[in-house]
Amino acid sequence: MFMNILITGGTGFLGTILVKRLVQKQHQVYVLVRNQSKLEALYKHFNEQERQQIKVVEGDLLDENLGISSSVLAELAKKIDAIYHTAAYLSFDEEERQRVFDINLTGTKRVLELATSLDVDKFIHVSTAYTLGEQTIGEEKLHSTNRSFVNTYEESKCHAEHLVMSYQGQMNVMIMRPAIIIGDSFTGEADTTFGLYGILRTVKLLKKKVERKGEPKQNFRLLIEKDTVSNLVPVDFVINMLMLGLTYGEDGKIYHITNPNPPTNGEIFDAIRKGLDFPHVEIVSYSEANELTEEERKLNQPLEVFEQYLNRSITFKRENTKRLLKQANEADLSMDQEMLLRIIKGFDEQE
To answer: How far apart are CA 298 and CA 196, in angstroms?
Structure first.
């Protein structure tokens, strides 16, 4: 069924692909953009005919009514069927705490207020699977905000989830929680520098350095727990779930867009060594940190921000997600080593 859909964050990695899919399904998409350069970056993904299905809405998350002009607001009133709120500020830097909360919490409040004023029927909030703080079991329900969080980003997203759910009764609301988003499961295409891609870039830079100097005498060690699992989800699976939410999602539900059988870090590094054609890197336990060389310590510095994620296996409950897939008669994610290898090779080819 044709719908008018407003999306925030439509120029980001996830948002751009979501806009593509919505356009393919013949929906009219209203994309909130802050400036012309963001718009140009988005438009390059579409042909002239597809661009006709995209309406640009100039504005800013932090302004009242998102900074949308009164004339445009009047045009949108009672016209928008659903809103995807994908915009967020992904930073683990405690010094940016205020900015993280401004965008991820206050920004969400602004979008919810707009949705109410426009009489929107459905609000799909894209959060993160990691609002559980330091727990190791994630339920498909709101987590208390009174807990220890790994970083400010997680904390801000947890508060935003509570805010979203407080709007139940005014519109249909749901929360989608992706885990660690990686490239397309078929092409490997990705436009992100976070998570797995920080590790891939570290290994690739190391490979270039070795190629200049010749074969190393021994392997380079990175501090990553071999048997810990990392919940990687291909971006196309995330998009599929977001699209299913539009059609089958239930009011007040939280969906974990997670990997039912996540790979261990050992399996991930087997794929990295093969995919990047660089056997001279190995992962060792954090208990061996004192044995690293000075060069290895420098190599590990960019990965320190991910230590809590690389050293802790989390089990995500996903009954709501499985029910959503069943309603749509869609298959669940099945990530094997071949898929992981395709994604890593895709990164290598697009670099």
So the answer is: 18
Task: For residue 316, give the amino acid letter.
Answer: F
In the chain, domain spans: 4-178, 196-229+263-313+343-350
CATH 3.40.50.720 fits 4-178, yes or no: yes
**Helices 13-24 and 235-248, axial angle in degrees (round to 10):** 50
Burial of residue 287, with CB atoms counted within 10 A of its CB: 0-12 exposed, 13-18 middle, 19 or more buried: exposed
Q: How far apart are CA 83 and CA 107, in angstroms?
A: 14
Backbone angles phi, psi at 214, to 5 degrees: 105, 180
Q: Are 342 and 185 in contact (CB under 8 A)?
A: yes
Contact (CB, 8 A) for 112 and 123: yes
**Cα–Cα distance measured from residue 319 to residue 154, given in angstroms and rounded to the nearest whole number:** 22
State both tokens at 243.
């699209």
Please answer whether residues 170 and 158 qualify as being in contact, where contact means their C-beta atoms are separated by less than 8 angstroms. Answer: no
Residue type, 158: C
Spatial CA neighbour of 234 closest among 281, 265, 292, 190: 190
The tens digit of pLDDT for each residue in 169-186 reads 999 999 999 999 999 999
DSSP 154-206: HHHHHHHHHHHHTTBTTBEEEEEEE-EEES-TTT------STHHHHHHHHHHH
In 76-149, beta strands by DSSP E: 82-85, 122-126, 137-138
Judged by phi (left if over 0) then psi (alpha if -120 to 50, else beta), residue 315 lies in beta
Q: Which pLDDT band holds residue 66 (cuts at 50, 70, 90)?
A: very high
The pLDDT tens digits for 187-227 are 998 888 788 898 999 899 899 988 888 777 789 999 999 99
Question: From residue 223, how far is each of 111, 202, 292, 296 by CA, in Å?
Answer: 40, 12, 9, 9
